[in-house]
Design a protein that fits this description.
By secondary structure, the chain is of the alpha+beta class. The protein is built from five helices and eight strands. Strands 1, 2, 3, 4, 5, 6, 7 and 8 form an eight-stranded mixed beta sheet that branches. Strand 2 (26-32) and strand 3 (38-44) form a beta hairpin.
């Protein structure tokens, strides 16, 4: 089943997207590197909830490759996967470093302090916002046994399995 959520329901879009990713600790942050290749690294999403401006927040080192690269090419992707729960989300958006000490304090955690021992005012700390433009998600609702049965049936019939779950698109802007 594929659904395309309309612009009229932006609040529900935001909440549905957040429900898909909130329990997934790490996202793969993919950016276009200066060598022209796509590079990815695991990053911890700092949000406690999805922001009203449809943003995801991260702490990064100001001296890191992603920060220097996405300032030149700001379109990025953050991919989330929960294989145990059969949930997968791909978020594309625009990344930028935001100078907002209040927001950094709001998002700060003990885990962040491990990476930035100078605390929220560490000179190397970059607060990075990814303004979400589009997200795709796959939420497999069928049990593992049903998935296995449908996949086995598909291999016999030569037709791809159907109704394994929900696929949707979320357009934020």
């Amino acid at each position: 089943m594929t659904s395309d959520i309309s612009h009229h329901d932006i609040g529900n879009q935001r909440q549905h997207l957040w429900s898909m990713i909130k329990d997934i600790r790490f996202g793969m942050f993919t950016y276009s590197a200066s060598d022209g290749d796509l590079h990815a690294r695991p990053m911890t999403t700092q949000n406690k909830d999805i922001d009203e401006d449809d943003s995801l927040w991260f702490f990064m080192s100001r001296q890191s490759e992603p920060v220097s690269d996405f300032t030149k090419q700001p379109v990025v992707n953050v991919a989330y996967a929960d294989p145990g729960g059969d949930r997968y989300v791909s978020v594309s958006g625009t990344a930028e470093v935001v100078e907002d000490l209040g927001k950094a304090r709001q998002l700060w955690s003990k885990m962040a302090e491990v990476w930035f021992p100078g605390g929220v005012e560490d000179a190397n700390l970059a607060l990075v916002r990814v303004k979400i433009r589009h997200a795709s998600y796959w939420d497999v609702k069928s049990s593992k046994i049903v998935q296995l049965f449908k996949t086995a049936k598909a291999s016999v019939t030569g037709k791809p399995p159907t109704d394994l779950g929900e696929h949707g698109e979320v357009h934020m802007h």
